[in-house]
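User: what does the whole thing look like in 3D?
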Amino acid sequence: MSSETANQKPLKQIGWVVLLLAFTSGFIIMSVELLGGRILAPYFGSSIYVWGSIISIFMVALSVGYLIGGRLSVNRPNLRRYGLFFVLAALGLLPIVFFANQAMDAVFMAIDDPRYGSLLASTLLFFIPTAILGMIAPYSVRLMVDNTERSGQVAGGLYFISTLGSALGTLLTSFYLVLWFDMNTILLAMVSILLLAGVLAFTLGSKRS
Amino acid sequence: MSRGYLILLVALISATPLTADVIHREKSIYRNIEVQESGRDRCLVFAQRSDDRRQSCVNLKDPDRVVFSYVRMAFAGLLLNERPRSILIVGLGGGTLPTALGDLYPEATIDVIEIDAAVVRVAEAYFDFKVTDRVQVWVQDARVFIKRAGRRGDHYDLIILDAFTGEYIPEHLMTREFLQEVRSLLSDTGVLVANTFSSSDLYDYESATYRDVFGKFFNFKLPASGNRVVIASPNPLPDTEALRAAASRLSKPLSRFGVAIDSFPRFLTTRADWDEDAPVLTDQFSPANLLKNR
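Assistant: Here's the predicted 3D structure for the full assembly of 503 residues, as structure tokens:
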């Protein structure tokens, strides 16, 4: 027990970094989800079922991400791998910028019913980056927890900060970002922020080891 | 009865505008729908708040007569094509336009796109709208219908865009890419009529977008009405002489709808009265609902 605590004490000091990064991932998840409606509308409309498709796929992707992130946190949790998640999420967003229209075109031609068209298009475009962003939440918990007694409190604090990030991402994107920028500009900014976050975590993780 | 009470009562009565009887009310997945009657008018209302928006009205004593000026203005599109054989109408409302155009051109096929199935039911039940072999309604998103029609290679002689409730704008029906898809649906003699926004920042952005896709178009406003109707075509626009000649030919058949088309040509101008530097709305950038309030 004492050796384990000693092992994890350094991690506790970088708690603020983990909180900041969890906030960032929460922000970006919801910002992308909101843009998803705009991305799909030219091909599938903006009816209620388009939102149904997007929200379902985000939920499924997040749930899968939680599972994988939790599993990966068992073996030697470290900041470098944590940073890698951010880099992968950034790369996962890039196809939305560069191939969304081609992908939606193919789906549009293959499937007549816009409900299933939007469901498949959401899967193709959003599943992978969202699942990777979902991995961040349980992994953050593991990085910050230093004893079982406080584990619930740590998890609560992380949910708090990342959900707050989600709220802010939703609000800023829908109120201002779409008024100021092209969608692809917003998405590329998200990609850059995720890359920066990944580099930050990776650098801190390398210094410690 | 106390005098104070009487005064209050009088104040209340005079403060209430001409009251309308609600003869039908339903909630659809998109909005609250009401059918109201006041005097001789029966109106379709998309009730959001107390300042309800009347979408479409019919005069029960004179059902042919088109009540709203912006709907009458839509007939100006006929000045560019007097005999459309195929017509596409986006947005059913009470069905005023498809009913009138169906009467006027019994040989024409008319496709109507309406996103809300409840609106179709209400139009049939309360506004005498009828689906026939030639007048068909497609309950779906207009962008999806138009994109697919384009891939099929369909063409229309007359396309009328009337999809905006005023409360909420479908932003994907405002963009350059959408208008390019609409343009590709127009036949060799095709003409587009769009009921659009006449105020706020959106006026500039929307005008710039139409100009980008169609080049010069007729910007049609009537002095007595707050509406603006865009009349655009991929073909060269007719001159005033041609418009006047067409108007005099159409004047008689349109008179029973209360459409004074003779008075229209002089208000059809290609002059830009908007900020020509305004950005074009695109699928990447279309914050129409935010611009509407600025």
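In plain terms: Chain B has nine helices and twelve strands. Chain B has two domains: 3-59, 69-291.
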